[in-house]
Amino acid sequence: MAEEWRKTLSIYVNEQNQDEVDYRTPSAGTVVTDLDYLLRRGERKRKLDMWYRSRGAAPLRCETRAKLVREIEKREGEIEVDLQLLKKIYYEKGGARHQEERIEKQRLTLQRDGAGWVVSRVELPVPERHPSLPFPAPDEAGEGRRPAAPRPFLNRELLGGSPPRGIAYRREDAVLYADRWWDGFNPEFAAFEVDCTNYISQCLFAGGAPINYTGKRESGWWYKGYVGGREAWSYSWSVAHALHGHLARSDAGLRAEIRERPEQLELGDVIIYDWDGNGRFQHSTIVTAFDAGGMPLVNAHTTPSKHRYWDYRDSYAWGENTVYRFFHIADRF
Fold first, then answer.
1. How big is the chain by its Cα radius of gyration, in Å?
2. pTM for this structure?
């Protein structure tokens, strides 16, 4: 039986692969019977086609590697599985070839249908939209325990004092760190289930942004890890809306200027996203490259992404009311 439903799962992954670059109705049909998902998939393909055209780009191919994370036999003839999909998407723009990568998670329900199997339900989490405070991720055993505490980072030259002035922002170092850890967690830091801003803060710190330790979670920009069994970091380190507020107001240490257009950004700059346009920012990315037209490509966590086009119109998180804030990080702090 396992061989039969795994064959259907393999066909589904191939469909996912094709959907990223081919927006026609598949001639061979589909193994999916979830009508709600099929409607969403059709609309997404239509938008992707328009999106690439508006960018002056053309998709070339997609390579998808699937990992079966979990399987549960709910009842006879029905299986629920969690999938992790690593996608490499290649496209052409202005005579240059680009590659982006991202890791997505899906939950599928497969049901026996006569002599074969179909995918009867597709659940697509959209973690970038998560507005709440991040929490440390459960351990790999899935038992919800707190992971082994990383060693607290304590910059003793900064604790209890104002951040030094005149430090250069090393943009290349921030980008190198972003590319090194886009698909994983640096074990020296806590890993969050909603990790986008924690990851961005680490990138900024790797580029030389000075810790501004206040001891108050509501102020400064700082990280100390676990101290005395308690979490110790500022909201601005780990929450997109708080980082937005810090960058918009800070006049010392880590600070930035708001730019009007994405093409005004540089490597190591930051984009923060308000998906609903209601003034509450929910996602953060860092600029790590540019396409042939000079538009930013970004890295992110939560949905791990490398060199992704900055506007996220290929994400289910994006909506017509989405607002972006473009932050040019100061050259010197």
1. 21
2. 0.89
Give the E-state strand segments of 179-255 in sequence order.
223-227, 230-233
**Which residues, 6 or more positions from 154, have their beta carbon under 8 angstroms from its beta carbon?**
224
- Rounded Cα distance between 80 and 66, Å, is 15
For 234, list phi and psi in degrees, rounded to 5: -80, 155
β-strand 270-274 against 283-290: which pairing, if any? antiparallel
Q: What is the pLDDT of residues 56-84, one digit of tens each?
A: 999 999 999 999 999 987 788 999 999 99
Tokens of 298: 């970004």
Instruction: Report the alpha-carbon distance of residue 97 to residue 139 in Å, rounded.
Output: 38
Decide: helix, strand or coil at residue 197: helix
pLDDT one-digit tens code per residue, 103-159: 999 999 999 999 899 999 999 999 888 655 555 554 433 333 344 444 445 444 444
Look at residue 237 and give its three-state secondary structure.
Answer: helix
List of the chain residues with pLDDT < 50: 138-152, 154-160
Strand partners, 158: none
Is the alpha carbon torsion for 25, 27, 28, 33 positive or negative? Answer: positive
Question: Residue 61 has which token pair?
Answer: 């191919």
